Amino acid sequence: MAEINATQIARRRYLTMAVSSELMERGFDAAEPECVETLTEMLQSFMVELGQSSRNYCELAGRTQPVIGDIVISLINMGISIKGLEAYGKRESRRILPQPQQAQAQKQLSILQAGQKHNHPSHIPNHLPTLPDPHAYIRTPTYKQPVTEYEAIREKAASQKRDVEKALTKFLAKTSDVHSLFDNEESPMFPLIACKPSFPPYQI
């Protein structure tokens, strides 16, 4: 079964309104939904057949758009009398349906595009699909350019030197003898590296 889109639903609803208006004009105060749906289906089938027949007569005459003559011939061919049709359309008791509101077109989501697409080279035919975004097939380096500024290099060297000194201090505090600021030998909170006195060689 074909999927019913919003346009078909709106047209079907408008046909239902036309059928309901005709029933009210004929003196009906209420109608069962099944009856209204059946009449709507009959009206839709009639209009589809009339449109297809009018298009066939239009194409037979070598035209692209049907005229009133094509519709008249289609009605006669379907066995429907056209006498009194004009008077029926100009009757005073007719009900005018409100003009259907135009549906707002859905905004298409903008597709993220990275870079500028290139045209086909001379050896690639034009009927082939267009090339994708350049980032999909052009090699781009993933590393940063080396820093060559003197100030940045000196700052980085000083930071590395400071980190090395801090790491060595922590290493010596864990592997050498330390002094604690508090009397807690099990887990000293603020360890201090113990200074080992160095004697001159001639005093040994």
UniProtKB/TrEMBL annotation:
Location in or out of the cell: Nucleus
Superkingdom: Eukaryota
One GO BP: transcription initiation at RNA polymerase II promoter
Keywords from the named record: Initiation factor, Nucleus, Protein biosynthesis, Transcription, Transcription regulation
Main location as per UniProt: nucleus
GO molecular function, one term: translation initiation factor activity
Ranges where the Bromodomain associated domain occurs: 8-84
GO cellular component: transcription factor TFIID complex
PANTHER family registered for this protein in UniProt: TRANSCRIPTION INITIATION FACTOR TFIID SUBUNIT 8
Family assignment from sequence similarity: Belongs to the TAF8 family.
Protein name (Swiss-Prot/TrEMBL): Transcription initiation factor TFIID subunit 8
Originating organism: Culex quinquefasciatus
Lineage: Eukaryota, Metazoa, Ecdysozoa, Arthropoda, Hexapoda
